[in-house]
Amino acid sequence: MVTDCATEIEGNDLMQFNVGSIAVPASCTEFKITLKHVGKLAAAVMGHNVVIAEASDVQAVNTDGLAAGPDAGYVKPGDARIVAHTELIGGGQATFVSFPVSKIQGDGYEFFCSFPGHAALMKGTITVGK
Questions:
Q1: Which site in 5, 11, 72, 110 is 20 to 30 Å from 126, CA atoms measured?
Q2: Domains of the chain, with CATH numbers?
Q3: Structural element, H or E, at residue 126
Q4: pLDDT of the residue at 22
């Protein structure tokens, strides 16, 4: 649920987000996503993050993130295709990211977890209202 230009996403030890889509109000100039890992497993085993990119770039961003490895939080440093991303967290932790809504132009954007193998299940769409 979106409230005051912000939303919260939960990730768990079953590789699931509790949100499948985010609708950002058009009135927002900045948007904040808080990620809470409600599981118990450590980041090295079942880490989660939220990465936002155009749907057409998700596979390449994910592949480059995998190559960047765990020290980079499975996010390629300086990747211009990424709108925003949180840090990688483990069970019981929380993190957030804020970004300018203007970075999302039109439809076709997704959020996903870039931990190896997670993007297949942990993903959703993010849109800005008209």
A1: 72
A2: 6-128 (2.60.40.420)
A3: strand 123-128
A4: 96
